[in-house]
Amino acid sequence: MNIYDISKKAGVSIATVSRVMNGNASVSEKTRQKILAIIAETDYTPNVFARGLGLNTMKTIGLLCADSSDQFFSRAVYYLERALRASHYDAILSCTGMELETRAEYLKRLLAKKVDAVILVGSSFIEPVASHNQYILDAAAEVPVIILNGYLKAPNVYCALCDDGDIVSQVTSVYLDHGKRDLLLLYRSDSYSGRCKLAGFKNAFAKRGLPLDPRRTVLFNGTIAQARDKLLAVAEQGLFFDTVIAGDDELAIGALKYAKARHLAVPEQFSIMGYNNSQLGVCCEPELSTIDNQLSFCCSNAVAALMSVLNGKPAPAKTMLSANVIQRGTTTLFDTVRESGGL
Amino acid sequence: MNIYDISKKAGVSIATVSRVMNGNASVSEKTRQKILAIIAETDYTPNVFARGLGLNTMKTIGLLCADSSDQFFSRAVYYLERALRASHYDAILSCTGMELETRAEYLKRLLAKKVDAVILVGSSFIEPVASHNQYILDAAAEVPVIILNGYLKAPNVYCALCDDGDIVSQVTSVYLDHGKRDLLLLYRSDSYSGRCKLAGFKNAFAKRGLPLDPRRTVLFNGTIAQARDKLLAVAEQGLFFDTVIAGDDELAIGALKYAKARHLAVPEQFSIMGYNNSQLGVCCEPELSTIDNQLSFCCSNAVAALMSVLNGKPAPAKTMLSANVIQRGTTTLFDTVRESGGL
User: Fold this and answer.
1) I want to staple A160 with a disulfide (CB 3.0 to 4.6 A). Which of A198, A319, B30, B212 is the partner?
2) Quick one: B198 and B269 in the same domain?
3) How do residues A62-104 score in pLDDT, each as one tens digit?
4) What 3 state SS string does B153-166 have?
5) Of residues B46, B113, B279, nearest to A90 (C-beta)
6) How many domains is chain B partitioned into structurally?
7) What ipTM was reported for this prediction?
8) Do the chains contact at A77 and B71, CB–CB below 8 Å?
């Protein structure tokens, strides 16, 4: 039962129901009593109450992320929460893990809480099989859905992301154009972002008419130590590589530990490019060169688009930002951009 | 205006107001209409509505932390959110920054949202000056307040924390009992936890009747690179030290970078103990020895105590857990405990 049902049952307009709930005196006493009686009889719950009236929303946005303790997600959640608060919205946090079923269930739970919108933090929410994204479309039928670092073309879905494919293609191209051929892409997940990185890597080879051994793209989800062991196993199987482009800084540090285990000098004999510009990258020695995917800009764009939509104004369905390379100690070939500092 | 005010204004009992709102037929039509009219006239908001009736709480807990992108806080928020969700509660996240005024204001905002309880994540919420903690006592007058990693003795306040003072005293004692004298405590904040660490450090010296140069306790809040520079400055000023006990892993990595800048072999010439057992500690070389302050146990204890209180049952006002030392590459003197893995 919501405000529409009440207006129907009372035989009055929605505006009249709203006026009664507001204590507006312009409604006749008879109509007022009738509406109040209907409300009292129903299971009209407080949240529906608030939202249905449109005058007292919960001012709450649902934030879904796989794992808020992850280096990337935790920064995203922080930036988003701050930006939402500046716009006078609260953030309900929901950590879903990686299972599609759990994600869909938690998203439904947030909608039942009558949040004003949801933000999906991270491209892992977008499934490779299109039909598996129905849960996002279902949510978007109820409230605006913002996707951070992923892209899904659908009504009422707004995406803010970094051009992961382009930067990986650029970085790969720099290596190839310097005559390097023994590259390895080590990426974590078959997410939207992961697929873009893979496409960018392949694209750089293809544009130059260079063959790409499929063993040079390694999909691997594990800890730093496990990433090191994975690379040791890959080398053990006879594949030579002297360059790792990593899908995140954890994997890049795994590659650094691999180089150490193999007594390879970094960056002289072995080159490593990280991803995400996380705090991990300034802990190791040499410090990581890494791709800065503009997380704080992505987050502020996401919230700006959301606020526009919530205020009934248009917003771009997709905001795509270009990434920067931050060259530190694990590479030599790249132009340095100014670091934002503070790590 | 809440359910009490309504009952007063209508001249009926709270139970009667509750029955009307429930659509319970056992109330006379005249009384029902009277109550509904009062509700319609007031600014009785939906959340108050829900909570006042006690039958449909928001099932929402406010999580306040200074900075959810911090290594320690982000893991705490993750563990807490998961534990709360398992108990069918949602978490509203609020990142307050470090200013007392902002913290107090955000806490008030959460209470206005009618959360069922608040969890203060991190000991930075507890001010050294007792009167500055009035904002916590005020909150505890309304809802249960849980403090993670800090302690405040007050009604309706429940604390889950690690015995920071004891473990720092133990670690310091191990160094002292091995004849090391040139220790330095590098800690980040004058928080409850920071004060415990300082007391533990001093205590180990005092128990042995050893003098402690006040320059050997350094309070410093900055980045990894700034911590390195701070230690370089301390050494420059003529203080010799060959051991750093750090208040967190960031500071410990700063100490590792200091050792590298000074060409000191770690752990042979220079020993470093980190704190928090964060992912940072397995990124550096050598990997950090670090104090594991049992964060996941603290979080599950905090939520267990909260659920007990919310269910009207007693809970310990203080749950104190002992910490472990995880010895990796930056120290030699400690017994190793088994690592929980997964970093």
Assistant:
1) A319
2) yes
3) 999 988 888 899 999 999 999 999 999 999 999 988 888 889 9
4) CCCCEEEEEECHHH
5) B113
6) 3
7) 0.76
8) no
